[in-house]
Amino acid sequence: MKNSINLTAAILFLVILGCSCPKLDELKGKKESPTPSSSPNAPNTASTPVKSSNSTSSSSLTMAQYNQLKINMPKDEVERILGGPGTEISTSTGGGMTFSVYKWSGEDYTSIILSFRNDKIMSKSQVGLK
């Protein structure tokens, strides 16, 4: 039990920091995208936002939705309540269990961050919900 609490704390710490370290991408098997060309004819793509294809950003998240989320609730029920899948922040497998962290983002920087163990809510947090 103590180890799973420590793991959850470590995962949430990384989520809060928003670590985008290139070394982590290497470890996950992702390659760093090439730097845009400095040619005057090349399009400027450096400021173009990229949205993950597997994420759904709910336009408005509410405290009422957050309060419906309960520990041990299955991920498919969470997605029904929040209007779709969130953005996967991290995932790991060990000891026959899978741990993952997902984030749902709303308007005005609101968000819901959920930690899952075997696709069931292990912990939950929110920012800015009303």
Describe the structure in your own words.
The protein is α+β, with helices and mostly antiparallel strands. The chain has one domain: Beta-lactamase Inhibitory Protein, Chain:B, domain 1 (2-Layer Sandwich). The protein is built from four helices and four strands; from the N terminus they run ααααββββ. Strands 1-2-3-4 form a four-stranded antiparallel sheet, covered by helices on one side. A hairpin with a 5-residue loop joins strand 2 (97-105) and strand 3 (111-117). Mean pLDDT is 75; it is low at 31-57.
**Sheet with the most strands, sense and barrel status:** 4 strands, antiparallel
Rg: 17 Å
CATH topology: Beta-lactamase Inhibitory Protein, Chain:B, domain 1
N-to-C CA distance: 32 Å
Uncertain ranges: 31-57
The number of helices is 4
Estimated share of beta-strand residues: 15-25%
Give the CATH class: Alpha Beta
Structural class: alpha+beta
Count of distinct strands: 4
User: Mind telling me which CATH architecture this is?
Assistant: 2-Layer Sandwich
| Helix and strand run | HHHHEEEE
Order of strands in the sheet with most strands: 1-2-3-4
Q: Average the pLDDT over all residues and give the rounded result.
A: 75
Fraction of residues in H or I helices: 25-40%
Whole-number count of domains: 1
From the spread of the alpha carbons, the general shape counts as globular
